[in-house]
Q: What sequence folds into this?
């Protein structure tokens, strides 16, 4: 039997999701699938488009892989625009040819609306929708200072942030009297406007542009209807989207009055063989400009093509939770209180810049909608009340009041009905989660893998975690936080015990709070805790047996039992004299020499007994230990900064050296890496570090909890335009809080992901001092800085400690199993011992 | 027939590091010596060679106990070796040699197979 043909026009977010949903279903076997995408790139995550300016590439944003398409035998034609649909012949036309179909899916998305203003076709008038648009913006922004975004809605503010990231002075021009008119009310818009202005983005509301002409001081001049004007080098139009329905119109499918391809609840257009999903589709007079409803349509269509009689698209929730220019904004349900008899509760803290509004049903029992600006803390809870018709508590205002005013934020996972939507990206309800747990999933990771929950936008991570843990606990599955068989405590609890009881040795701790003699898990963990609390030398008699070999010998053990040596080279800056010493020492001991990924030099192949001799020489030349072996600060990477670079706006090298000197030696649950970039071009890759600092005209932007390595994570923007002093005290607090509360071997990225309340909570603790411990954290850090010693210097000067560095305590010979060979002019171990 | 052995002096008591290991050279090759003062007996000796990584490193691992059995964890790939039997807890067919050790005044002695007759030497 020959296969029928299914053609999909549009390889965007929804088109791709449809293929993912459809490819493995029984019906798919009957079709040859052909996909046309106008863009030259495989479908990518438009929601996170702005991250492209933060350093993400197309492959980071890509939603699938070419391999997946070929595995599923899907014929993918990228860079091939469909120009015509012939419904009678049932074929589509592209510049390359004609392709017949049996079923056709339109997933053409939408395009940015550019208001009909004279001069809007100037080459530096741009839009913000595709990666190609972003490339154009980047090119246009090169070497200029100012940019204007026309449109103060959700996408406009994102675009403004992007311009800011490119180093431009960004301004927003909005026609309406307030920002985000769709999602916010007057007060909410005003709070947002003030916060954004404070962040250095000027906002002009109630401005109608009449025309755009060449400027005098900049490329362009915008004239407004109130006779004012503005000069700018580039303009990004972000004044709304319009459904991409051109093909459908030409093919005379039914189109809505204001655009959009009319579909029924089974995503069929007026031609039963043509279907439309995503932003191009109009359902009950509505276009959904968000990705989750599009995904729901995609799932619905996949089910319909499988003849599932129950499949139907029945509308979607348009609630949104966003972070715009670092400001929390949330809008839920009937945010404007249009329901009959609706009542309002408003809370407006002008000093803190927090605005919250709840819209409540006439009988006061149900939450109909809400607006949040400045703090999305209550968002998850409010959304659950609204979506699930949960009856409000007696004093509903407590849901939006700050905790200090008697607020009770969280809605326990038990209170949620089974139908409660936990992850809207992947349509996972609490009931779905309970089902997979019943079927055997016994931890968060496996629930995620089974349901895909929390693998989309990630907004539901905290809620998912609490639901899963609650369900597991209810089923008697112990969510064990014990460190190991010797200590029935988590690392954080042990930290507390050590600190509060003033415990200074492992033996005291295990006798009082543990059992047995310890192991390779609890010993180094406790050693690290003791180091952060009391900062004694790592080789003090009591601590020696606790350390991993790397810490015991203050060098990383290599596969053949030799060690590597990594002296500290703060910020990557090194004098020629010091470089020469490294060369001389390496030559004398025949050490393999390599530049590391952390801007320093690694010398490999030293035997145990050579280590102190080598360090003696390095210390004499002014080097210090680099802690390459420790769970502690590694390197602070820097770019060259404004002392040399024509774009630099601050002295990134000096700051990197300062930070490296300040935090060197700090013992932590895992290693810590930092970087400082001298401008937004970000040559030091600061956003992939635990602590990342990027210079701005006015100071420093701080990113936290980034990670390279196995599971890369972009750092979160934590605070902006900090002075030197503010930067240091903020980092002090973040690091100290991490060191005190993280689990063993959790990098800051994993810690952040597990931190209840996430970034918002960390900001409260650090920036607003919500726990009242800011001073104490800083003082603790200060005391550690004050008690720093170069461990290697202390060790080489102490004959007792040096005794440890003997291969054999009773013989001078070198280890006989080590075998060497030579490669590219240097010595290396023989890979397979003979 | 039981191989002939001799009790060699390998180091001073002061060379031992409490709760940790040191390596000594013997006529039978490298041996790892562990001193766990809270146990009786307190001295343990096993081969220093780690069969899992092919390097002489076991004396540099962390000591401890797993369900009461004294062990050392290889510093390279972290497998555990019983200090009583030399058995690797992760791999049934991997085992390192075990030696008897005792304190003789200020010195430590190890029972070593007489060179040339050893079944362990390989
Ligand atoms: C030497 C170096 C590779 C090189 O030749 O460039 C290196 C070498 C090792 N890395 Fe690394 N990493 C080196 C830069 C990096 C980087 C790049 C960077 O720092 O910019 C990364 C990714 C960035 C990051 O960490 O976020 C990196 C991510 C890792 C990871 C994965 C960490 C993670 O969170 O996923 C490990 C494994 C671990 O720590 O558990 C690791 C572990 C190791 C160990 C310690 C593995 C081991 O236990 O033997 C290697 C020790 C070699 C030695 O003896 O010195 N190394 N490692 C680099 C030393 C930099 C330095 O000057 O200190
Ligand atoms: C900057 C930005 C931020 C956003 N943030 C959010 C957010 O936070 N939350 C949220 O829910 N949504 C957000 N969105 C909206 C979200 O990206 C869209 O809802 C989603 O991409 C819609 O998917 P789609 O497949 O319908 O359209 P698209 O992803 O636009 O895909 C349509 C594709 O079809 C192609 N195409 C069109 N015509 C043809 C043709 N004739 N032939 C071949 N190919 C064609 C287009 O080139 C395009 O690649 C954001 C959008 C942008 C631009
Ligand atoms: S990438 Fe792997 S092999 Fe290379 S240095 Fe890092 S840890 Fe070692
Ligand atoms: S809601 Fe987006 S990942 Fe769950």
A:
């Amino acid at each position: 039997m020959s296969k029928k043909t299914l053609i999909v026009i549009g390889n965007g977010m929804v088109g791709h999701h449809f293929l993912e949903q459809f490819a493995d279903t029984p019906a798919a076997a009957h079709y040859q699938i052909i996909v046309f995408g106008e863009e030259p790139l495989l479908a990518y995550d438009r929601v996170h488009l702005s991250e492209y300016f933060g350093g993400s590439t197309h492959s980071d944003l890509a939603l699938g892989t070419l391999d997946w398409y070929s595995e599923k035998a899907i014929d993918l034609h990228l860079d091939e625009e469909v120009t015509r649909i012939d419904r009678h012949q049932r074929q589509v036309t592209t510049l390359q040819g004609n392709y017949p179909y049996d079923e056709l899916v339109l997933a053409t998305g939408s395009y940015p609306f550019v208001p009909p203003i004279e001069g809007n076709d100037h080459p530096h008038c741009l839009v913000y929708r595709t990666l190609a648009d972003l490339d154009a913006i980047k090119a246009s922004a090169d070497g200029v200072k100012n940019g204007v975004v026309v449109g103060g809605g959700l996408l406009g503010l994102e675009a403004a942030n992007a311009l800011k990231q490119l180093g431009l002075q960004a301004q927003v021009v909005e026609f309406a009297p307030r920002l985000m008119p769709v999602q916010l009310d007057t007060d909410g818009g005003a709070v947002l406007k003030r916060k954004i202005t404070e962040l250095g983005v000027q906002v002009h509301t109630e401005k109608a542009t009449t025309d755009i002409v060449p400027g005098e001081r900049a490329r362009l001049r915008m004239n407004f209807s109130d006779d004012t004007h503005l000069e700018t080098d580039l303009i990004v139009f972000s004044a709304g989207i319009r459904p991409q329905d051109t093909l459908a119109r030409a093919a005379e499918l039914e189109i809505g009055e204001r655009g959009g391809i009319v579909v029924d609840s089974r995503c069929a257009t007026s031609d039963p063989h043509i279907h439309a999903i995503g932003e191009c589709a109009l359902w009950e007079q509505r276009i959904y400009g968000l990705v989750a409803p599009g995904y729901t349509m995609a799932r619905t269509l996949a089910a319909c093509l499988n003849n599932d009689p129950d499949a139907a698209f029945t509308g979607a929730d348009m609630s949104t939770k966003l972070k715009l220019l670092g400001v929390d904004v949330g809008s839920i349900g009937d945010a404007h209180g249009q329901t009959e008899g609706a009542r309002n509760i408003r809370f407006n803290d002008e000093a803190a810049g927090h605005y919250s509004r709840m819209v409540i049903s006439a009988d006061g029992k149900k939450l109909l909608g809400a607006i949040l600006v400045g703090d999305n803390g209550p968002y998850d809870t409010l959304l659950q009340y609204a979506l699930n018709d949960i009856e409000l508590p007696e004093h509903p205002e407590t849901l939006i009041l700050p905790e200090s005013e008697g607020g009770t934020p969280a809605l326990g996972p038990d209170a949620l009905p089974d139908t409660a939507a936990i992850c809207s990206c992947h349509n996972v309800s609490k009931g779905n989660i309970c089902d997979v747990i019943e079927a055997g999933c016994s931890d968060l990771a496996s629930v995620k893998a089974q349901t895909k929950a929390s693998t989309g936008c990630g907004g539901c991570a905290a809620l998912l975690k609490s639901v899963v843990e609650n369900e597991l606990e209810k089923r008697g599955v112990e969510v064990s936080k014990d460190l190991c068989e010797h200590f029935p405590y988590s690392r954080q609890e042990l930290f507390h015990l050590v600190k509060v009881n003033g415990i200074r040795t492992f033996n005291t701790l295990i006798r009082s709070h543990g059992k047995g003699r310890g192991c390779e898990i609890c010993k180094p963990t406790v050693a690290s805790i003791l180091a952060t609390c009391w900062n004694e030398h790592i080789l003090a008699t009591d601590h020696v047996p606790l350390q991993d070999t790397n810490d015991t010998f203050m060098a990383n053990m290599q596969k053949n039992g030799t060690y590597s040596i990594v002296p500290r080279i703060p910020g990557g800056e090194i004098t020629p004299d010091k470089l020469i010493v490294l060369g001389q020492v390496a030559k004398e001991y025949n050490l393999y020499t390599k530049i590391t990924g952390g801007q320093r030099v690694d010398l490999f192949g030293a035997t145990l007994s050579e280590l102190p001799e080598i360090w003696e020489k390095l210390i004499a030349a002014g080097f210090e230990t680099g802690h390459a072996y420790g769970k502690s600060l590694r390197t602070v990477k820097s770019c060259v900064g404004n002392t040399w670079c024509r774009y630099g706006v601050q002295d990134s090298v000096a700051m990197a050296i300062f930070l490296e000197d300040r935090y060197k030696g700090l013992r932590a649950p895992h290693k810590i890496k930092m970087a400082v970039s001298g401008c937004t071009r970000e040559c030091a890759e600061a956003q992939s570090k635990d602590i990342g600092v990027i210079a701005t005209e006015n100071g420093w932007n701080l990113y936290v909890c980034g990670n390279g390595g196995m599971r890369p994570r972009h750092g979160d923007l934590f605070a902006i335009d900090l002075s030197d002093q503010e930067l240091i005290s903020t980092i002090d607090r973040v690091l100290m809080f991490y060191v005190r509360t993280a689990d063993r071997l959790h990098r800051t990225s994993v810690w952040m992901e597990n931190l209840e309340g996430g970034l918002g909570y960390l900001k409260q603790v650090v920036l607003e001092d919500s726990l009242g411990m800011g001073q104490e954290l800083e003082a603790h850090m200060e005391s550690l800085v004050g008690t720093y010693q170069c461990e290697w210097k202390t060790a080489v000067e102490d004959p007792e400690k040096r005794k440890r560095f003997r291969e054999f305590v009773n013989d001078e010979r070198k280890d006989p199993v080590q075998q060497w060979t030579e490669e590219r002019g240097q010595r290396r171990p023989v890979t397979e011992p003979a | 027939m039981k191989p002939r052995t001799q009790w060699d002096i390998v180091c001073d008591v002061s060379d031992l590091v409490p709760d940790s290991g040191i390596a000594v050279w013997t006529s039978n090759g490298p041996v790892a010596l562990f001193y766990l003062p809270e146990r009786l007996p307190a001295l343990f000796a096993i081969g220093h060679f780690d069969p899992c990584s092919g390097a002489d490193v076991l004396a540099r691992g962390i000591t401890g106990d797993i369900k009461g059995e004294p062990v050392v964890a290889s510093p390279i790939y972290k497998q555990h070796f019983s200090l009583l039997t030399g058995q690797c807890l992760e791999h049934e067919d991997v085992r390192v040699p075990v030696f008897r050790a005792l304190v003789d005044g200020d010195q430590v002695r190890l029972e070593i197979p007489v060179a040339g007759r050893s079944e362990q030497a390989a």
User: Anything to note?
Assistant: Chain A touches chain B at residues 485-486, 516-520, 522-524, 541, 544-550, 552-553, 557, 559-561, 803-804, 806-811, 813, 815-818, 833 (CB under 8 Å).
